[in-house]
Amino acid sequence: MIELLFYLVVSLLLNFSLFVVAFKLQSDKLTDASYAISFMTLVISAAFISGFSWYVGIGAFIVCLWALRIGGFLVYRVVKIGKDARFDSFRSSFFGFMRFWLLQGVTAWVLLIPLFFAFRQEEPNISLLSAFGVIVLITGLAIESIADFQKWRFTSDERNKNKWIESGIWRYSRHPNYFGEILVWLGVFFYALPLLSLGEVLISLASPLLIITLLLFVTGIPLLEKAADERWGSLKAYQDYKKRTSILIPLSHK
User: Fold this and answer.
1) N- to C-terminal Cα distance for the chain?
2) Do 207 and 110 contact (CB within 8 A), yes or no?
């Protein structure tokens, strides 16, 4: 437990330091990059402290790969657009903005708890369940990468202004990027699971449960569905799209 608290302190100090810079500059570029920076700093620190093994190396590599993908996408998007509208309501508020950064630090810490436990094992081995976890993670990473790329390309086309996307993977799910993200952290959990004690398993469940709760019930799907309904809810074509398209898991049209 002391090690877990250590990583929490590292995450909070890192995010507070980055917050001070971002608040002073009032720029979203560092804010969007910081999520990836948090994960990479924590997982590399855990790998360094644990000592090298193939298990630790693979776990750290795939998390860093995910972080570079999402961080690169967010930074590219904010550079092209100029700002991230998500922060408009509290970017200039010291405590409001700081609250976002500290919650981000806690989120990164919670999601990585399974690996913090698994990495500290003396001789961690890659089991069949761990290999399954890697497959689930890579599948999720591929799905969210494809979904983000397709939506970015769609929204970048002026001909699609004020339209919703229902092409590509978005034809089968209204939020395929979130489905991919959930798979990523379920994959991390399965990767670590064979090395965990019962108590560690129960604590580590906080990782997938947190991302599922956030995306399905708090900041993810509910907010986007509400915004979409306000924008297009009166259109029969949009109502038809909702009826025939799964909200999360990519499925054949109903």
Assistant:
1) 48
2) yes
Burial (CB < 10 A; 0-12, 13-18, 19+), residue 42, is buried
**For 84, how many CA atoms within 13 A lie in the half-sphere containing its CB?**
19
254 residues of the chain, pLDDT tens digit each: 788 999 999 999 999 999 999 888 887 778 878 999 999 999 999 999 998 899 999 999 999 999 999 999 888 877 777 666 777 777 778 888 898 889 999 999 999 999 999 999 888 888 999 999 999 999 999 999 999 999 999 998 999 999 999 999 999 999 999 999 999 999 999 999 999 999 999 999 999 999 999 999 998 899 999 999 999 999 999 999 999 999 999 997 65
CA 219 – CA 104 distance, rounded (Å): 13
Report the chain's C-alpha Rg in angstroms. 19
- SS3 breakdown of the chain: % helix, strand, coil, rounded to 5? 80, 0, 20
Q: How far is CA 6 from CA 36, 119, 206, in A?
A: 19, 15, 18
pTM for the model stands at 0.92
In order of 135, 153, 197, the CA distances from 149 in angstroms are: 21, 6, 39
